[in-house]
Amino acid sequence: MPRSASSRLPGFVLAVPAWVWLTVFFVVPFLQIAWFSLGEKPGMFGTHSNAVMSLDRYAEAFSPTFFTIFRATLWMSVTGTIACLLIALPAAYFMALKVPAHRRGLLVALVMVPYWTSFLIRTIGWKVILSSEGALAGFLTDVGLVSDPHALLNTRGAVLLGLIYNYLPLMILPLYVAFDRVDSALGEASKDLGAGRVRTFFQVTLPLARPGIIAGVILVFIPMMGDYVTPAVLGGAKGTMVGSLIASQFLTAQNWALGSAMAVVLILLTMLVVVLAIALLWGVGWLVGRRSRLVIGTKSIGTKKVATA
Amino acid sequence: MSRPSGTNIALGVWTTLVFVFLFAPIIVIAIYSFNGGRLLTAWDGFSLEPFTAIVERPTVRHTVAVSLQTAVIAALLASALGTLAGMAMARFPGRWTGPFTLLLLLVSVTPEIVDGIALLPWFVTLGQDWSLLPFNNGYVRLVIGHSLFATAVVTYIVRARLVGLDASLEEASADLYARPVATFFKVTLPLVGPAVLAGGLLAFTLSLDNTVISSFINVSGTTSWPVYVLSSVRSGLKPEIAAVSTILLVFTLLVLGLVARVLKRSGSSVTDTMAVA
């Protein structure tokens, strides 16, 4: 009779240390701030108190001063995500379907190099490029595009540029994987059946890459909403985001109750937008898919199981 | 295969521009690490001074040392936790895998700032209210903060590696009357070895770069390198910051090259693993 390890010891025991560790240092701390968010800041020197329970901190987080920053963060993250998608789509398409197979691995590795380089240092690199002493500011002032060399840095535009830059690799990679899995025979079949290249791209290739698009949008949008480093380095006073707001409640104002409420609102808002975006992307895909179903048959034919890289 | 058409040339040019965009700030930092001026942003002639300044300034050396020590311990811890969890997920799936996968997913998608602001009060509760003194120690706090996401990453990589391997080797070992412990150390561990190494090295680089969580749970005296850099964004960036960054960049690239080689030799897809991370 074969004796496997599972007959002696339940296998999930191996996962218990990680489970306990993540519960104690991830789940419980989060529950604690959710609890703090229902309390208040007691007097000058206290950070939090749950003596009086209320939803007042949430009302405070939605007050006009703070809500403006929530709205600005949402605007920058949505714009930044769409920009990432538009920049990454042609590049990922080219890398996956036009570059010779033996050179694709190198290109993917090159995309990952910036992503694994220190986030903070890359952002500081943009600070150097955009600074008033830099060559770019000098050039733009000489040409006459910018009147003041200080106009580049410490603006909302600089933060947006930083966001797009910092998360672009996270959009390119899933799109690349998605395009890589699209069977090129389907595209040829579409052309044989008389569809033009543009029509093939929009009705065959793009719908098949939809899971990659959804993955990329989620991977880029969520960290953008919570970014704290990019506005701190490039934003100055004008480019504040929710991350900076929450940080200042914890590190400067010492108001943990309000900071916690803001963090909870940030998470709920992010989740809401992600759900809406997925619904939208599926909806659009469903409309396009319904029209092209007769042409390509069931969509499951189009996906290869194995990704080669 | 495909003749270079107008569209393809346009796509190629676009992709080249994207790569220029991706590398621009990194190249700028590498160049400015030879800046002889007093401030990083103002170029003032070529000089090796930023590199000699590293040796002369104790703060720079101390913060880099804190970061390296933390990264080693955090990587070892995350590798241990993640390897066991990844093996359990791949070899003993059951009703528990669903909730556990959800937990890992939440750990991966939660913005770092939320981890940071949640850990700060928690360490205060543990260390000051409950008098569990280790949690007031800066190293302990940094290691814990850096281990969370890294544990999830190692778990994904180890699980992916084992799912791709046949369980028959382990079964054969059990059939040959090896005790489960012996099977684990002599069969399973060598099989997942490359994945553990790759996951551990990734955990190391993640810890080395961690800025957000570290800046919230920072204890004075054990300030890590990125937290020091972030604080000098406000007080004035010096060229030696670029110099240290250039050295760390070369170091990280060597580590990543090693990861890619190990993963390639062990047969897993590098892109899939990295995309998961």
UniProtKB/TrEMBL annotation, chain A:
ABC transmembrane type-1 domain residues: 70-277
Q: Does the keyword Transit peptide apply?
A: no
SUPFAM superfamilies referenced in this protein's UniProt entry, alphabetically? MetI-like
**This protein's GO CC annotations:** plasma membrane
Topology versus the membrane, per the UniProt entry?
Multi-pass membrane protein
Q: Which residues cross the membrane?
A: 12-35, 72-94, 106-125, 158-179, 200-222, 261-289
Q: Does the keyword Zinc-finger apply?
A: no
Which Pfam family, any one of them, does this sequence belong to? BPD_transp_1
Q: Which GO terms describe its biological process?
A: transmembrane transport
UniProt keyword terms in alphabetical order:
Cell membrane, Membrane, Transmembrane, Transmembrane helix, Transport
Subcellular localization(s) per the UniProt record: Cell membrane
Name the protein family: Belongs to the binding-protein-dependent transport system permease family. CysTW subfamily.
Question: What is the protein name for this chain?
Answer: ABC transporter permease
Q: Which organism is it from?
A: Nocardioides turkmenicus
UniProtKB/TrEMBL annotation, chain B:
What InterPro entries does the record tag this protein with?
A: Bact_Polyamine_Transport, MetI-like, MetI-like_sf
Q: Which domain of life is it from?
A: Bacteria
Q: How does it sit in the membrane?
A: Multi-pass membrane protein
Location in or out of the cell = Cell membrane
Keywords recorded for this protein, A-Z: Cell membrane, Membrane, Transmembrane, Transmembrane helix, Transport
What Gene Ontology terms describe where this protein resides (cellular component)?
Answer: plasma membrane
Its Gene Ontology biological processes? transmembrane transport
This protein's record includes keyword DNA damage: no
Can you say what this protein is called? ABC transporter permease
